[in-house]
Amino acid sequence: MSARSLTHMILLCGVALLVGILRAEDITTSDGQTFTNSTIRRSGELLMIKVTMEGSTSSVEMGLPLARIVKVSFVEPAELAKALSAATKGNSAEVLTLTRDYVSKEAAMKDVPGSWWPEMARIRLMALAASGKDVDCADLARQIGTIKSAGADSLSRAGTLFASLATGDLQAVIVGAKALPRLNGDQGSALAQLAMGRALLLKKDYVGALRAFLTIKVFYPSTALLQPAVLAGAAESYVGLKDEKRSAQCYAQIVQEWPDSPQAPEAKKKAGSLSQP
Fold first, then answer.
1. Helix (H, G, I), strand (E, B) or coil at 53
2. What digits encode the pLDDT tens for the residues 79-134?
3. Alpha-carbon distance values, 75 to 25, 38, 150, 157, 205 (Å)
4. Which of 14, 47, 81, 132 is the most exposed place for a label (fewest CB within 10 A)?
5. Residues 152, 134: Cα–Cα separation, whole Å
6. 33 near 1, Cβ under 8 Å?
7. Where are the domains of the chain?
8. What does the alpha-carbon distance between residue 232 and residue 213 come to, in Å, rounded to a whole number?
9. DSSP of 161-217, one letter per residue?
10. What's this model's pTM, rounded to 2 decimal places?
């Protein structure tokens, strides 16, 4: 690229909001240009990158409009693999620890093509819901909703239901959950069923709550982070239905299959008390 064309592309900003600086292996634009091994940051609707002018050893910062960017090959965050591993064990506490800093600091990059933020935020959203952190879950869901994709929309709609759950507007939770497909949906549908199950449990509709919880267990088994919370909800529903045997079985299943989950210690106590004559 010539010095003239580079100079033409440089956008001078009076005030630039500095956010997290990341490394990108490659940045590809819609006109076929590729920038390699760049340091980048976000400033409004611009992605600011540093490039070296031809015939010079000095670098200059230039702004690329986000609309021109096809993909950025971000370096995968080291915490992602660990968070995914913890998620398979239902260990929502560890997932929250591993995703906290990245999701907080790199939110400015969430809608940049190739960003790892949506995946890190998705895992964190599930962990927040599973941990009963309803307000934080809803707040993150609203951030996810600013990303233009079907999966993000579903997660956002489901996650924001937990705000109504926190305020006690149980009918709003039920109506909102029914607006998402119960079967053949995505992880947003599973999340919505968890919110519905908890709302119905509070309304003492134990049959309805059990149906919602078991929907996740049977039809969305891949949502590992939700499974311990689902079993705990099912156990409480069985208690409401005076079925202590099945309740004890649910608690025992948490202890056996999800020992690293935050629900396991309480499940162990309740499984023992229910099994006593």
1. coil
2. 999 999 999 999 999 999 999 999 999 998 898 888 999 999 999 999 999 999 99
3. 7, 11, 25, 29, 47
4. 14
5. 18
6. yes
7. 3-74, 78-275
8. 9
9. HHHHHHHT-HHHHHHHHHTS-SSS--HHHHHHHHHHHHHHHHTT-HHHHHHHHHHHH
10. 0.86
